[in-house]
Amino acid sequence: MINKLVTAFIPSYNYAEYIEDAIESIINQTYPCWEIVVVDDASTDSSPETICKYQERYPDKIRAVFLTKNVGQAEATNIGIAHARGSYITFLAADDIARSNRFSEAVEILENYPDVGSVFSKVSFIDSEGRSFQPASDIFNREVYNLRWQLLEGNFLCGTSAVHRLDVIKSTGGYNRALSHVEDFDLWLRILDKFDIIRVPQVWVDYRVHDKNLSAIGSSGNEMRFGMFYETAITILGAIQRWPLESLFEFKFLPHSPERKYEEAMAKIKLSNHCLSLDKKFFGKPLICLGMAYRLALDAALLVPENEQVKELLNVIYLCMGDSQRARGQKSIKMSDLSVYWKIKTPLRWVKRQVVNFKSFARQ
User: Fold this and answer.
1) How far apart, in whole angstroms, are the C-alpha atoms of residue 248 and residue 151?
2) Is residue 253 a contact partner of residue 260, using CB atoms and an 8 Å limit?
3) Is the pLDDT confidence value at 220 over 60?
4) What is the rounded distance in angstroms from the CA atom of residue 120 to the CA atom of residue 110?
5) What residues have CB less than 8 Å from 348, skipping those under 6 apart?
6) Has residue 346 got a pLDDT over 70?
7) Given CA atoms 275, 278, 283, 284 in this order, what sign does their dihedral have?
8) Domains of the chain, CATH where assigned
9) Rounded (10°) angle between helices 308-321 and 258-283
10) What's the CA angle centered on 244, arms 241 and 247, to 5 degrees?
11) Residues with Cβ < 8 Å from 109, sequence gap 6 or more?
12) Span 152-162, mean pLDDT?
C-alpha cells in the first residue's frame, strides 16, 4: 500500500456556497493519506466560518491560513505551497469537486513514472446547482496528440484536475506573481523544462461552471481581458526559448552532421512561422512574437545559409517589421520612412503572405 501524503490545496475567496462540497470531496477520497491546506484570501462572505468548522472537526488533517488582505490567486497559491507537507500536491478550486478515486490513481501513476512531474485528467462539467451538463465550448477535454506542441498554442490543461510532485512545484519557484491571467499555464510550461506532463483519459474532477468563471471554458459570456493574450504570448515565447529542439521534434540524423543541421533548420523555421501565427491569433498584427520569429529565422540561416525557405521567411519578417525595401533585396528602409510606416496601422498583407508561403510547410 502506498502511503505517501497528498496535500490538497484549496484557495478560498468568497465561494461559501461551494467550498463545503470541495472539502467533502477530499475527505471522501479512497486514498487515506491526505491533508487539506486552505488559504482564505480575505473572503467577505461566510467562507471562513465553514473552513473553521471543518478544521475543528479534523484538526490533524485540515489546516487553514486566513489572510487579512486580498493578495490574489498567485500569491495565495504560493502560500499554500509553502504550508504543504505532502510528497504530492493538488490544487482544487473551492467551487470544484474531486472524484473519490483521484488521489489513488494519480499517486500510482506518479510512483511508477519518475520522469512525470504532473498528471492531469479530463473533467466533467457541473452547473451552479451541481447538475451535469456539456458546455458548448470545451477546451479541457480536447484530444492530446503532441502535448508540448499543443501547449505552444495555449493552455488546455485543467489545473484543478492535476496532481503534482511537491518538490517539482517548489523547484520551479511556484506561481509567478507578476502574472494575472496565466500563472498556472506558465507553471505547467516551466515544469516541462525538466519533467514530463501527462493527461490521462479518466475524469478526476467535476468542474463547476457559473457566472464567475465562464471565460475559463471559452464562453463568450464574459469578455476576456487583453492581459490574457499578451501574457499567454510571452509565456509561450519563454518555453520556445528554454526548451531544446529535441523536446519538440524527432531528429533522424546524428548531431553536427549536414543532414542534422538541415533538420534543425527546418524545425526553427516551423517555430518561427508559429511565432508569426501567434501574433496573428492574439493581436491581428506583428507584435510580441515577431522578435522571436526573427531570432529563430536567423538561427536557421546560420545552419543552412542558402536555403530558399529561410530566405523567404526572412523576407516575410522584414515585411512584418515594415522594411519592405529589404524584403525586395534592397538596402534597409530609412528611419524617417519607417517612422511614417509605424504611425499608421500595420497592414495585414504580412498575414496573407505568411499563410501562402508556409501553409504547405505547416502540414508537414
Assistant:
1) 11
2) yes
3) no
4) 11
5) 284, 285
6) no
7) positive
8) 6-223 (3.90.550.10), 244-362 (no CATH)
9) 30
10) 120
11) 116, 119, 198, 200
12) 96
